[in-house]
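INFO  loader      accepted 1 record
INFO  loader      residues=183
INFO  predictor   begin
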Amino acid sequence: MHNAWAAWAAMREPGHDALVPYADLPGDVAQPGRPYLDAIRRVADSSISGSFAQTLLPYGIPVEDKDRDRLFELYKIVVTSWEALVGRRQAFNTFFITIQGALVAVAGLLLRGSGQVQSKAVALTALAIVGGVIAYSWGSLLRSYGQLNGGKFKVINTLEWLSPRRSTGPSPPGRPGRLEPSS
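INFO  predictor   done
INFO  writer      dumping tokens
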């Protein structure tokens, strides 16, 4: 919460006294925001608890350095694969936009050219059907990418919640240890 405010305030008032990491704020400045921070953590905690957390970490949160390092490497792999997923989605969007543009161009050429009206109508109908199939395929791929993105974000958010470098301060009471590389 503090970091969101800090990002906003840095543009408007770069010299503000509270533009420091949350952990460095004086108690009288940090305390009024504590109920909001606790509420945000409760919501975030409830979204990563239960069967998903048990599936992701069936043996609990790692306590040994080598296991924590493996989990941190998993985090880096998931983030890298998410970035690759975004790149692939952008490439597919470019591909489908190009194909749809080509279909519109061909339709324009058909309408402009000379020939029988009946043959133009058949060609345009065929182009419309092909365009519809391509649009449906595009939508299906976008939904699949959305599902993959959602799953990856759930893993990333869970692993970040376990990270000691979280920018929102210490874990709430009763929260187990957090992820960090041993080095």
